Amino acid sequence: MTEFRPSRFEILPAVVKNLLIINGLFFLAQNSLSGPNGFFDFEAIFALHGWQSPLFRPWQLVTHMFLHGDFGHILGNMFALWMFGSILENLWGPKRFLTFYLICGLGAALIHLLFLSYEFIPLTNSFEAIARMQDSGGPAFNNAMIRFIDKYNILFTEHQAVIDNLKMNPDDTASSAQMFELLKSYYERNINTATIGASGAVFGVLAAFVYLFPNTYIYVYFLIPVKAKWIGLMYFAYELIFAVRNTAGDNVARWAHVGGAIVGLIIVLTWNKTNKKTLY
Predict the structure, then answer these.
(1) Domain ends where: 145, 165, 191?
(2) Burial 10-40, CB ≥16 within 10 A → b, else e
(3) How far is CA 191 from CA 19, 48, 106, 139, 162, in A?
(4) How sure is the predictor about 3, in pLDDT bands with cuts at 50, 70 and 90?
(5) For the whole model, what pTM was predicted?
(6) Are residues 100 and 38 in the same domain?
(7) Does residue 17 fall inside a structural domain?
(8) What is the structure's pLDDT at 248?
(9) Domain boundaries, position 248
(10) Which of 62, 146, 250, 254 has the fewest CB atoms within 10 Å distance of its CB?
C-alpha cells in the first residue's frame, strides 16, 4: 500500500489522545510549577542529561519525551503526532503503536546520548586536566586556562578584563581563581545541558508513515500537495546535514531526530517482514 485509504478510521484514537493529554499536562506543570518563580525544577529531574552529568537519571530516557521548551515546540510535535500517529494507530492498534512510539523515543535518546558523550569527551578531559593543576597554580595553570578558552572559543565578554589581566600577569592569584570559577561554570553549564521533547519519537512515526504510504499527498502549509516520500527524504537529509555539521549555537538535538527516524524505519521494516498483513 503506497497511499492511505482509510476504511474505519478514528480521528483521535486512544493512545494518541492520551499522549496529547499527558504532554499537555506536563507542559502546563512545567510552566506553572517550574521556572524562575517555581519551586520544582522539572528539567533537572525529568529532562535528559548526558551520562557525564551528575543530573543524569535512567528514567529521563522516557520522561524527557513529555517535556517541551515552548508552545511552538509542543504544538509542532503534537500536531505531527496526531497527523501521522493517528493513521498508524488505526492501522496497527493501540498496543503496537504505543510500543513503537516508546521504542522510537528510547532509541532516539540513546543515539543522542552516544553522540553527546562523544562530544563531551575532549571537553571533559581538557577541564579535568586544568582542575588537577589548580592546587599548584602558577603561570602553567593560568596558561592552561587561557589555552582552554582559545580552544573552545569561549566568550566571556563581561569578564574580558580578567582574561587580559591573566595574560599580562600570569602570577595574579586573584584573577586566576576568578578565571577558574568562570571556566568551571562554563563546563558545568555544558555538561548539564538538558534535552527535552518528543521529536525523536515523532520522527520515528514520520519515518514509518513515509515507508508505508510514500505516495500519500501531504499539503504543505495546507496548500501545496507533496508526496510523503519527498517530504520525508528532504526532512531527513536536512536533519542529517545539520547533525553532521554540528553547527555552533544550534540547540536542536539533531541526532535524536535522525536516530528516531532510523529506529522507526528499522522497526517497521522488521514488522513488515514478519507480519505483512498487520501493516498492510
Answers:
(1) 191
(2) eeebebbeebbeebeebbebbeeebeeeeee
(3) 30, 12, 21, 27, 24
(4) low
(5) 0.83
(6) yes
(7) no
(8) 44
(9) 24-118+197-279
(10) 250
